[in-house]
């Protein structure tokens, strides 16, 4: 099948799915994003790029950044990290607090907010400039030096930080937080506020489809085994309490963000990123999910 034609067809069909979700509105900087937008990009291991729609338009990557921060943390801490954060699906919303007290400040997995805060904390312990280090890493992974952090989004997140601050403080009370809460929150929000487009995200995550090695630069970001493990966690928890539905409909490891982006991995073949800002009740892109399901069906991409 002609991949470019398929992406163009999916893009043409996207418009009929607009209006079923709502753009994130917990901060003004995200609430002002126009809802009826769609982009998709595929980056193959051979280095070929296919894209359609607004694949070059940057958006707030939000929780997709949790896959970058986890990569950095696994690289630095290895298996030690798993003493502080679990590997199980949470079954609760990404910003839920309830489990955290029952489970003594150990978040279920690294992709819910509490888990990503622990990951950010672990990076703050090892790095004197954790935000700069993230930016440099993501620029290298994407092969694009112009990637930036949207300060307006990061500052706005910090102004509305109370739920994430509550999680961090609760974990601190259980002894599962090493740094000052504010420092970690600033780093976490900066990661979420990375501004990237579908093409850049598909390229940046290509190491996840290639046993941890960037097919372009040859740089080994993770070992093959660590890459398999990260993909397993993305499959089971990357879409929070909708990870089961994603595995059922799409059948790939994936990570979503409330900016409307979703990246997904077809190990051994390619990475794909879709963007459409309207979200469902789980905080995942409605049209993005539809598009990935169409892609998966058309190319028989489910790992199962
Ligand atoms: N799911 C997401 O993308 C959530 C990220 C958001 N910045 C938050 O911390 O709530």
Automatic annotation (TrEMBL):
<dbReference type="GO" id="GO:0006543">
    <property type="term" value="P:L-glutamine catabolic process"/>
</dbReference>
<feature type="binding site">
    <location>
        <position position="157"/>
    </location>
    <ligand>
        <name>substrate</name>
    </ligand>
</feature>
<feature type="binding site">
    <location>
        <position position="63"/>
    </location>
    <ligand>
        <name>substrate</name>
    </ligand>
</feature>
<dbReference type="InterPro" id="IPR015868">
    <property type="entry name" value="Glutaminase"/>
</dbReference>
<keyword id="KW-0007">Acetylation</keyword>
<comment type="subunit">
    <text>Homotetramer.</text>
</comment>
<feature type="binding site">
    <location>
        <position position="240"/>
    </location>
    <ligand>
        <name>substrate</name>
    </ligand>
</feature>
<dbReference type="GO" id="GO:0004359">
    <property type="term" value="F:glutaminase activity"/>
</dbReference>
<feature type="binding site">
    <location>
        <position position="188"/>
    </location>
    <ligand>
        <name>substrate</name>
    </ligand>
</feature>
<dbReference type="GO" id="GO:0006537">
    <property type="term" value="P:glutamate biosynthetic process"/>
</dbReference>
<dbReference type="InterPro" id="IPR012338">
    <property type="entry name" value="Beta-lactam/transpept-like"/>
</dbReference>
<comment type="similarity">
    <text>Belongs to the glutaminase family.</text>
</comment>
<protein>
    <recommendedName>
        <fullName>Glutaminase</fullName>
        <ecNumber>3.5.1.2</ecNumber>
    </recommendedName>
</protein>
<keyword id="KW-0378">Hydrolase</keyword>
<feature type="binding site">
    <location>
        <position position="113"/>
    </location>
    <ligand>
        <name>substrate</name>
    </ligand>
</feature>
<dbReference type="Pfam" id="PF04960">
    <property type="entry name" value="Glutaminase"/>
</dbReference>
<feature type="binding site">
    <location>
        <position position="258"/>
    </location>
    <ligand>
        <name>substrate</name>
    </ligand>
</feature>
<feature type="binding site">
    <location>
        <position position="164"/>
    </location>
    <ligand>
        <name>substrate</name>
    </ligand>
</feature>
């Amino acid at each position: 099948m002609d991949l470019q034609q398929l992406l163009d067809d999916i893009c043409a069909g996207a418009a009929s799915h607009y209006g079923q979700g709502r753009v994130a509105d917990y901060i003004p900087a995200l609430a002002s994003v126009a809802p009826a937008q769609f982009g998709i990009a595929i980056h193959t291991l051979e280095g070929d790029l296919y894209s359609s729609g607004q694949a070059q338009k940057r958006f707030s990557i939000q929780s997709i950044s949790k896959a970058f921060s986890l990569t950095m943390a696994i690289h630095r801490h290895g298996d030690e990290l798993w003493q502080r954060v679990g590997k199980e699906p949470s079954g609760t919303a990404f910003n839920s607090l309830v489990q955290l007290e029952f489970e003594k400040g150990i978040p279920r997995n690294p992709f819910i907010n509490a888990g990503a805060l622990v990951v950010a904390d672990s990076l703050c312990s090892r790095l004197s400039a954790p935000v700069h280090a993230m930016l440099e890493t993501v620029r290298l992974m994407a092969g694009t030096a112009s990637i930036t952090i949207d300060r307006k989004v990061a500052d706005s997140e910090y102004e509305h930080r109370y739920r994430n601050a509550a999680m961090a403080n609760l974990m601190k009370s259980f002894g599962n937080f090493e740094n000052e809460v504010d420092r970690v929150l600033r780093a976490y929000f900066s990661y979420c506020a990375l501004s990237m487009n579908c093409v850049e995200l598909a390229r940046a995550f290509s190491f996840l489809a290639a046993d941890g090695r960037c097919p372009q630069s040859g740089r080994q970001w993770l070992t093959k085994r660590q890459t398999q493990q990260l993909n397993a966690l993305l499959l089971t928890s990357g879409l929070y309490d909708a990870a089961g539905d994603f595995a059922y409909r799409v059948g790939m490891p994936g990570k979503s963000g409330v900016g409307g982006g979703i990246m997904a991995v077809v190990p051994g073949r390619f990475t794909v990123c879709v963007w459409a800002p309207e979200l469902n009740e789980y905080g995942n892109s409605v049209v993005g999910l539809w598009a990935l399901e169409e892609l998966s069906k058309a190319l028989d991409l489910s790992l199962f």
